[in-house]
Write a structure and sequence with these properties.
- The structure holds 2 protein chains of 2 kinds.
- Chain A is mainly alpha-helical.
- Chain A has 2 domains: about 1-35, no CATH class; about 40-220, Four Helix Bundle (Hemerythrin (Met), subunit A).
- Helices cover about 75% and strands about 0% of the residues of chain A.
- Chain A is elongated.
- By secondary structure, chain B is mostly helical.
- Chain B folds into 2 domains: about 10-75; about 80-130, no CATH class.
- Chain B has 3 helices and no strands.
- Chain B has helices spanning about 20-45, 55-75, 85-115.
- The longest helix of chain B has about 30 residues, at about 85-115.
- The chains are: A mainly alpha, B mainly alpha.
- The interface between A and B is large, with 68 and 61 residues.
């Protein structure tokens, strides 16, 4: 079914049915004779590669944390420090934020200024609540003499959670500038591309948080 | 359909379907992800389950949820138009696996090889709390 549609979309390739047996000459994939892929495809792919490199950087921090997890130097352990209820609320905020961000992207694709701005505002508010809860948790730990200087375990914990929190903060700044840009310039193609990159970034942060709450909080609290 | 000539290719995050179908996709993703998250928290806090199996179960639930996020939120699919994105993802997963598993393996091995009396273990791996 889709092959038929693709053949019709292939256009000029049909004139030489034996010339392109693997249908490499599809329109604007960048692999045929129709020129490079569209800018949206290239930008999305490039940003996806950046995100994967960011995830690889996180994997190094995760590995450090996993290695140092038991090196508490007589100090408090994860099981004594972590409050799973707080983590559950944080997780809910970030997941809902990711969901609303997706809805905002749909609104942006229909060029609805009001719904896009409402969606992005909700995304930002939920992300902000997450950040406040996380900062509150970290400040509370420092106040209980469980700061990053206390043990190798806590250094690794603050590095990992802090790095994710930093990414969320940068994402919130980016979100604010995106809202301003949409407001000022409308849904031009390059604004749409920036929105695509922002949504990818925001969803990727949620994926990292899934790994984080599982490995750090759930596994840490169970020990 | 402003970029109709892109129909044969897609960037990660692209969604060519109509608004309703798009909202439904995100809603399905949200429900699945929320279900997996709730299960994870339940598994971590309950005492009903067999203790040694809990960490493996939690890892499986986390990987499943990452898959849900990739499929429903980032729109990484198995379609022919997504080959580049999937290949980049596969390479990223390979590197992540090598970094994490390699670090854990090497450091655990070092700790086993150096049981020096009177010296604290490099990473206190024996001191399970």
């Amino acid at each position: 079914m889709s092959d038929v549609a693709r053949d019709q979309g292939g256009g000029r390739a049909d004139r030489h049915p034996h010339h392109d047996p693997h249908r490499l000459g599809r329109v604007s994939t960048g692999s045929g004779t129709h020129g490079p892929a569209s800018k949206r495809i290239v930008v999305g792919y490039g940003f996806w590669i950046f995100l994967l490199s960011d995830i690889i950087m996180f994997s190094a921090i995760f590995a450090t944390y996993a290695v140092l997890q038991s090196a508490t130097n007589g100090g408090p352990t994860g099981a004594q420090l972590f409050d799973l209820k707080n983590v559950a609320v944080e997780t809910t905020c970030l997941l809902l934020s990711s969901f609303v961000c997706g809805l905002a992207m749909i609104a942006a694709s229909t060029r609805s200024m009001m719904w896009t701005q409402i969606g992005l505002l909700l995304t930002g508010l939920l992300g902000f609540v997450f950040l406040v809860l996380e900062l509150h948790e970290l400040a509370d730990m420092v106040a209980r003499n469980a700061g990053p200087q206390r043990s190798a375990f806590l250094s690794a914990f603050f590095t990992l959670v802090g790095c994710h929190g930093l990414h969320v903060s940068v994402g919130l700044l980016w979100l604010g500038t995106m809202m301003a840009q949409i407001w000022a310039k409308g849904f031009t193609p390059n604004i749409q591309r920036r929105l695509l990159c922002f949504s990818l970034f925001w969803h990727a942060l949620d994926i990292i948080w899934v790994a984080l709450f599982t490995i750090v909080y759930l596994l840490g609290a169970g020990q | 359909m402003s970029h109709g000539h892109d129909d044969d290719d897609s960037a990660p995050g692209d969604d060519h379907s109509q608004v309703l179908a798009g909202v439904r996709g995100y809603a399905v993703g949200l429900v699945l992800a929320a279900g997996l998250t709730a299960t994870s928290f339940w598994v971590a806090s309950t005492h009903v389950l067999w203790g040694p199996g809990v960490p493996i179960g939690l890892c499986v639930l986390a990987i499943a949820q990452m898959g849900i996020h990739l499929a429903f939120f980032l729109h990484i699919t198995t379609g022919p138009d997504n080959t580049n994105n999937v290949l980049a993802l596969a390479f990223g997963v390979l590197i992540v696996f090598l970094v994490v598993a390699g670090s854990l393996w090497i450091m655990a091995h070092l700790n086993q090889m150096m049981p020096m009396a009177g010296m604290p273990q490099m990473t206190d791996l024996q001191m399970q709390h």
